[in-house]
Design a protein that fits this description.
Layout (H helix, E strand, L loop, with lengths): L2 H12 L7 E2 L2 E2 L6 H9 L3 H29 L3 H14 L3 H6 L5 H4 L5 H11 L13 H10 L7 E6 L2 E4 L8 E5 L9 E3 L8 H11 L6 E5 L8 H4 L5 E8 L5 E10 L15 E5 L6 E6 L5 E2 L17 H14 L6 E9 L2 E8 L4 H6 L9 H12 L3
């Protein structure tokens, strides 16, 4: 990822928005966040309250045009746009999220954690994630820490840091991948499948310098493939399990999100929903998949829309091992974090930790399972952490 784009991403994810709009229940917030917003409201100064009122007025004016735009994009129709705008004004919601979460009225939508409020909540319950030296921001440091604790990650055989390119081994075969050290959403991922014979580290360095360059910090790693039992839905990308874990009331990691992500179209090299990927809920007890769905637009199905391969009911290989790995890694690699989203790949050789995220996507946590955070253990633990977090 280009440095300027990474900075823009960091600014966007740091932005907090207060739900200034009100409805009959007070502030337009999910029920499980009422106490949190009541405390925030009581602490706001008069200038901040005035700014909230202006933002609220602008938000109300925005909802109609936003709903109409989303209706055109997704083919929802004028009647849906009017209903979505009304729900949005009452709940301080984005009509796009109303479409994604399949909400037909206020009661269905009020349990969902909205994307705009995720940052403010994460800053309070997961402050370690916002430190400049957060280990999850640096793929090479994170992988090294996992290795220290005995958790498998893709083998790194070369890295570029500050323009200094170093190779510590020879790639196995002609296929590997390069990832930015700082990055998200699969941006900057490069798959190389035509490397010539590289007899020593110097040859590896020369090849990577010519193909990738040294302007952006990156790591070069083995290219992993999805387990054969999922190949017909994974397509050309590595599928990953998103297992989000949270510390519970006794300080032990607990799984709150269990989802498989996989590519939506042939040729896609990453499974991220930002790249058009699909996802399906994983039953935490059995490892069986629920219905598939798009992450960025409406669409639910029992079979992959491109291949026709069955999704619903399919068992994820090594599911129990992957779940136990995520729980153990939270306790041993990231014990200071209240919340971590683990991306674990089901490969032929077992589960492999690809990366971890200190502010895992709220859309993934809710859309795949078809329930808002407020109706899940996820929301219950968010509320518990917020109640004891300092303002």
């Amino acid at each position: 990822m280009e440095t300027k784009n990474w900075r823009l991403y960091e600014w966007k994810r740091s932005f907090e928005l207060f739900p200034a709009a009100r409805n009959e229940d007070g502030f337009a917030a999910p029920a499980f966040l009422k106490d949190f917003y009541a405390r925030k409201s009581a602490a706001r100064s008069l200038p901040r309250r005035a700014a909230d009122a202006l933002i609220g007025a602008g938000f109300r004016a925005w909802t109609s045009s936003r709903a109409a735009k989303i209706a055109r994009r997704f083919g929802m129709g004028d009647a849906w746009a009017a209903e979505a705008a009304a729900i949005a004004r009452s709940t301080w919601g984005d009509p796009k999220e109303i479409a994604l979460f399949r909400s037909k009225d206020v009661s269905e939508f009020k349990a969902y954690l909205r994307k705009f409020e995720h940052t403010a909540i994460n800053k309070r319950i997961n402050p370690t994630n916002w430190r400049d030296d957060c280990i999850l921001k640096f793929k090479d440091r994170f992988d090294a820490r996992c290795a220290e604790e005995g958790f498998p990650t893709p083998r790194t055989f070369a890295r570029n840091t500050g323009g200094k390119l170093e190779a510590n081994g020879v790639p196995l075969g002609a296929e590997f991948c390069v990832k930015p050290v700082y990055g998200t959403g699969g941006v900057g991922f490069t798959h190389i499948a035509d490397a010539p014979p590289l007899p020593d580290p110097a040859a590896v360095e020369a090849f990577l310098r010519s193909r990738i360059g040294a302007k952006v910090d990156w790591v070069a790693q083995d290219y992993l493939r999805t387990h054969a039992n999922l190949a017909d839905i994974a397509l050309d990308a590595l599928a990953t399990m998103r297992i989000s874990t949270m510390l519970n009331e006794v300080g032990a990691p607990e799984a709150v999100t269990t989802v498989l992500r996989f590519a939506g179209k042939p040729g896609a090299r990453v499974d991220n929903i930002a790249a058009g990927g699909l996802m399906a809920h994983i039953d935490p007890e059995t490892g069986a998949l629920g219905r598939g769905c798009y992450g960025k637009r409406p669409g639910d199905f029992d079979a992959h829309p491109e291949t026709g391969a069955a999704i619903t009911g399919r068992i994820v290989p090594f599911w129990r091992q992957a779940l136990e790995m995520a729980l153990a890694a939270h306790a041993r690699v990231t014990p200071a974090f209240a919340l971590v989203g683990w991306d674990i790949a089901p490969t032929e050789n077992g589960p492999v930790i690809i990366e971890a995220n200190g502010m895992p996507c709220s859309t993934i946590a809710q859309r795949a399972v078809g329930r808002g955070a407020g109706d899940q253990r996820y929301g219950e633990l968010i509320a518990w952490h917020l109640a004891k977090a300092p303002e």
